[in-house]
Amino acid sequence: MGGRVTRVFRNFNVENRASREISKEKPTPAPRHRTARLDTMADSPEIKEEVLRKDDRFLTLLKDVYVESRDPPVRVKDGGGEHLPSKQEEKRLTKLGHLEALDVKKVSKGKISLVEALTLLNNHKLQPQIWTAEKIAAEYSLELKEVHSLLEFFIPFTVMEFPKETKKAITSHKPKQLT
Asked: Which of 55, 147, 149, 175 could form a disulfide with 137 if both were Cys (CB 3.0 to 4.6 A apart)?
C-alpha cells in the first residue's frame, strides 16, 4: 500500500516539473586555475617559435653520435634439456570397441583413457579369473603395481534391484510407538 502512495506523489505533475528543469539556464562553470590553461599559452608566438627553432649545437652533437648494435652471443644453459623429453613418447591405439566415438584415439604408453579404465574395471569385476591384473597390464601397456592399485581402490558402481517381496516386507513394517 505504501508503494502506491509514494508512486502517486512521485508521478504527480511529472511533465511540468521536467519542462521547468529543462527551461532553466545552465549554471556558469567555476573559473579554472591559470596553470590549467596551457592550450592558450601554446597559441602564443614565442612558445611556437621556441618549439620550432633548431639548435645548431645540439644538431652537431647528434651527428657525432654513432650507435652500433650487436646481439650478445647465445649461451646454452647446462642441464637445460632436463625438462624436454629426449625422445617422443610412444603412443598406442585405444581398445574401445563400440565406445570408440566417446574417447580419444591415441594414448601414451603407460596411461589409459577414461573409457578404457571403466571398461577394464568392469571386465575384472564380471570375470576376475580371466581379466587378472597381469593380463590387464599386458593388454593396456601398464605397470603391474599400478594395475594392482587401480583394481584395489577403484570399483565400478553396481545397480541392485530389490525383489518385490522385500519391498512389501519393508513397507508393511510398522514403526514402533514411543511411549
From this structure: 147
Look at residue 93 and give its three-state secondary structure.
strand
CA dihedral 135, 138, 143, 145 (to 10 degrees): 10
Contact 76, 89 (CB under 8 A): no
Task: Please write the tens of the pLDDT for every residue from 64-107.
Answer: 888 888 888 877 665 555 555 555 666 666 665 555 555 567 77
Given a contact cutoff of 8 angstroms between Cβ atoms, the answer to whether 110 and 141 are in contact is yes
Q: Kind and range of the H or E element at 107?
A: strand 106-108
115-146 pLDDT, tens digit per residue, is 888 888 988 999 999 999 999 999 888 999 99
- Residue of 119, 96, 98 whose CA lies nearest to 106: 96
Compute the distance between CA of residue 58 and CA of residue 67 in angstroms, rounded to an integer. 17
- Which tops the pLDDT comparison, 150 or 163? 150
